[in-house]
Design goal:
The protein has 226 residues and is of the alpha+beta class. It has helices at residues 14-23, 25-34, 45-55, 61-64, 126-141, 187-202, 213-225, and strands spanning 11-12, 71-76, 79-81, 86-87, 90-91, 95-99, 102-106, 111-118, 151-165, 173-183. It has one domain (11-225): Lambda Exonuclease, Chain A (Alpha-Beta Complex), CATH 3.90.320. The chain contains seven helices and ten strands. The protein is globular, with a radius of gyration of 20 Å.
Length: 226
């Protein structure tokens, strides 16, 4: 596939650092150079995310988890953008752009970054989501504009649906088990992921991911049409 003179987008989505590299580098390359991607049908993700975020508006951090520094959730669902990413000492064309879920202002002047998840997946681990939260942190600490923030902690706030509550049409709902999963800072690991990500984007047209449902479907369909 021919590479255009300029990518269709130069802002890297934090979620692509988690899902893009681990799923299919070919689809990732096409997304950034041609802005073509399979449509996703996830009708409940938006409403559930909004419910979860709003539930913690103004909540004290230590009500979320006792390991967090004293503070209060003050920001919900705001976009952050970084300065151009540096790889091997040189500025690239690529920057981080994404919308975090929750930010708490700590009493010591730092902030806590909290990413909300409504899921029962076993992959909701610190290792899996670490690149995504590190990307938000990078954009907050090295912003394209505005005041830089000092991120003292990162973590996942996971709601795992586990029961039905209520007993009338107006009160039915889902109960959840809540857990907080801290993510340790690993600057070297994050920079390695960024370097790999940008190498894929700047490189030639990649092979399809062996477990990519989109690529496997297209290959199978083309085989049927021959």
């Amino acid at each position: 596939m021919k590479k255009p003179a300029k990518p269709a987008r130069e802002n890297i989505s934090p979620s692509d650092l988690t899902f893009g590299l681990s799923t299919c580098k070919r689809c990732l390359w096409i997304k950034y150079w041609h802005k073509v991607m399979m449509p996703l049908t996830m009708p409940l993700v938006g409403p559930l995310s909004t419910f979860q975020e709003n539930a913690f508006r103004g909540v004290a951090t230590q009500e979320i988890d006792s390991s967090l520094r004293p503070g209060k959730v003050t920001k919900l669902a705001e976009f952050v953008k970084s300065k151009p990413l540096i790889v091997n000492g040189e500025a690239t064309r690529w920057a981080i752009l994404g919308k975090y879920d929750l930010v708490a202002e700590n009493e010591d002047g730092t902030v806590a970054l909290i990413d909300c998840k409504v899921s029962d997946s076993t992959r909701d681990s610190a290792d899996f989501y670490s690149p995504q939260l590190h990307a938000y942190t990078y954009a907050m600490e090295i912003p394209a504009s505005g005041k830089a923030l000092s991120v003292a902690s990162m973590g996942l706030l996971v709601w795992k649906p586990n029961r039905v509550i209520g007993n009338t049409p107006d009160t039915y709902g889902f109960g959840v088990a809540q857990s907080y999963v801290p993510i340790e800072r690993n600057e070297r690991g994050f920079l390695n992921v960024i370097q790999d990500f940008i190498s894929v984007l700047e490189g030639p047209f990649p092979d399809a991911g062996p477990t990519c449902n989109t690529c496997n479907y297209l290959v199978t369909r083309l085989g049927l049409e021959d």
